[in-house]
């Protein structure tokens, strides 16, 4: 009797399992068909609403196109998000103008397909070109016009342009105008400006976002807005709050800043046996307080081989001074004699040549290299911190063993000083809050070329160990982070439109501190249904 019951129970279990598998297979098939229909309906919608003289077929790529892979991967800057298992877009749209962006947004909303906007593809977590939901990429590659107005010291630049292209055309018009943005020439201005954006001029002129005068944006309703029509709240939000949460930013009007005809650069490299630790410790007191015309960052790297036991650590003091070395040398001798700077370390050049210098190009390289949008890519993981109290010497010494680990063969820590203009701008002037009281920002990076999840996990674990070690020595409550150095480890939203404000505030306060609340308010007004979203987008109050 018991044996019979047992057999009956097993049979019932098998039947239930069979039914479950059948329902699951049916549901999976339904989802595939629905997804395919969504994709096809989206394309039909684009075709129906496109202007006759601007056929949509010329600007779209689907997996059936031979050039789809090239269009997708040409601006994937982190191969960690270019694997067979990485979710791929249903469609890539490369608009030539405003109307095609509006059509894309309309059709995506109508057919419930997500949009990710990509300008340069440098998002550290791949959020501009990867999504767990069915999605299309709105790639701004064709929108990169730049118009320089030397007479009024302004420029209009479209979001698909790179920093290198912007610098090239500024230099083409003037030797004594510049712009305070980053040193990597392949970064797209769209993401860079909307997250704050900084470079070697930040102590003199602040961030890129601090020098934005106007912007053209397409909102969730398809309206084409400028600063006046969007209002000051939205204009505030897109200058440091991450533009992808609020709409599609087509172009920016920026204020160009004066630079001398000649600047002075130097790089002084110190090993541990040359008192690198003591000099780095002293740097924390000097770099944020010295003349704002002087920017000295520190790049910490390992050298030698872990395998052969000859690994060492070096600190490179990498600098630009907005003036000649005749003024720089006495300034350094007075304020930072520990570095031992001498005339032979210094090179005078134009500001635009200093961009090439900081990017790593050889002196005398043609400016045409700034127009090159290609980039050798590897897998990498990054994190960021802000320092408000000097890190003790013994804590700095505790960092060095990390560089001796196998995973750190291609790792770097970059310390950028603040102070100067950065300390004068209010925390609430833009969403970027890391201002007065900040000694500097730390960027941690680890690269690897090995393929596979095992290699990724190994290197990410190394990064997390280093980040954990640094916790006592950096900002806290919150532990601040930089939105343009995206890090999903610090928190992320739920999949789909719905995410809790409490959940989003975990990462939001680290990037924006108290400004996160105002960003949520702006989001609620301009995108209440949370159409523009990603794993770290600002949520509306309604969700």
From TrEMBL:
PROSITE patterns linked to this entry: FAD_PCMH
Keywords: Disulfide bond, FAD, Flavoprotein, Glycoprotein, Signal
Domain FAD-binding PCMH-type residue range list: 85-259
MF terms (GO), sorted A to Z: FAD binding; oxidoreductase activity
One Pfam family this sequence matches: FAD_binding_4
PANTHER family: OS08G0158400 PROTEIN
Name assigned to this protein: FAD-binding PCMH-type domain-containing protein
Source organism: Quercus rubra (Northern red oak)
């Amino acid at each position: 009797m018991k044996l019979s019951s047992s057999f009956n129970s097993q049979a019932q279990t098998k039947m239930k399992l069979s039914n479950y598998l059948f329902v699951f297979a049916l549901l999976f098939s339904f989802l595939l068909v629905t997804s395919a229909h969504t994709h096809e309906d989206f394309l039909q919608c684009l075709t129906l609403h496109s202007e006759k003289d601007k056929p949509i077929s010329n600007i779209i790529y689907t997996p059936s196109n031979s050039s789809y892979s090239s269009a997708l991967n040409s601006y994937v800057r982190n191969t960690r998000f270019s694997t067979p298992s990485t979710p791929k877009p249903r469609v890539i749209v490369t608009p030539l103008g405003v109307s095609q962006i509006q059509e894309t947004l309309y059709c995506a909303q109508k057919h419930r397909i997500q949009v990710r906007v990509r300008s340069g593809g440098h998002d550290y977590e791949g959020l501009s070109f990867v999504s767990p939901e069915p999605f299309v990429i709105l790639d701004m590659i064709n929108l990169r016009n730049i118009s320089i107005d030397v007479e009024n010291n302004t420029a209009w630049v479209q979001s698909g342009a790179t920093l290198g292209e912007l610098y090239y055309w500024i230099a083409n018009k003037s030797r004594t105008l510049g712009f305070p943005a980053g040193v990597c020439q392949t970064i797209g201005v769209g993401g860079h400006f909307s997250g704050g954006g900084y470079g070697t001029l930040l102590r003199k002129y602040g961030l890129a976002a601090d020098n934005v005068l106007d912007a053209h944006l397409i909102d969730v309703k398809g309206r084409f807005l400028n600063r006046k029509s969007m209002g000051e709240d939205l204009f505030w939000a897109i200058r440091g709050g991450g533009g992808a949460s609020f709409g599609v930013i087509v172009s920016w009007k920026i204020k160009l800043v004066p630079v001398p005809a000649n600047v002075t650069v130097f790089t002084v490299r110190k090993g541990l046996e040359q008192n690198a630790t003591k000099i780095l410790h002293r740097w924390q007191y000097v770099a944020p307080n010295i003349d704002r015309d002087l920017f000295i960052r520190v790049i910490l790297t390992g050298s030698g081989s872990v395998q052969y036991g000859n690994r060492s650590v070096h600190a490179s003091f990498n600098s630009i001074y907005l003036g000649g070395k005749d003024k720089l040398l006495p300034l350094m001798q007075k304020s930072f004699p520990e570095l031992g700077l001498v005339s032979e370390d210094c090179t005078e050049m134009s500001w635009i040549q200093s961009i090439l210098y900081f990017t790593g190009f050889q002196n005398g390289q043609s400016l045409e290299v700034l127009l090159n949008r290609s980039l050798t890519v590897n897998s990498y993981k990054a994190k960021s911190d802000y320092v408000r109290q000097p890190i003790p010497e013994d804590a700095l010494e505790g960092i060095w063993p990390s560089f001796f680990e196998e995973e750190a063969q291609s790792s770097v820590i970059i310390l950028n000083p603040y102070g100067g203009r950065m300390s004068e701008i209010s925390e609430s002037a833009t969403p970027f809050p890391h201002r007065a009281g900040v000694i500097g920002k730390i960027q941690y990076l680890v690269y690897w070329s090995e393929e596979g999840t095992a290699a990724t996990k190994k290197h990410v674990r190394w990064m997390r160990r280093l980040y954990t070690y640094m916790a006592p020595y950096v900002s806290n409550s919150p532990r601040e982070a930089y939105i343009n150095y995206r890090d999903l480890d610090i928190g992320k939203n739920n999949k789909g439109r719905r995410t809790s404000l409490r959940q989003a505030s975990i990462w939001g306060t680290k990037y924006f501190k108290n400004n996160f609340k105002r960003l949520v308010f702006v989001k609620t007004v301009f995108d209440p249904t949370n159409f523009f979203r990603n794993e770290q987008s600002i949520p509306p109050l309604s969700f």
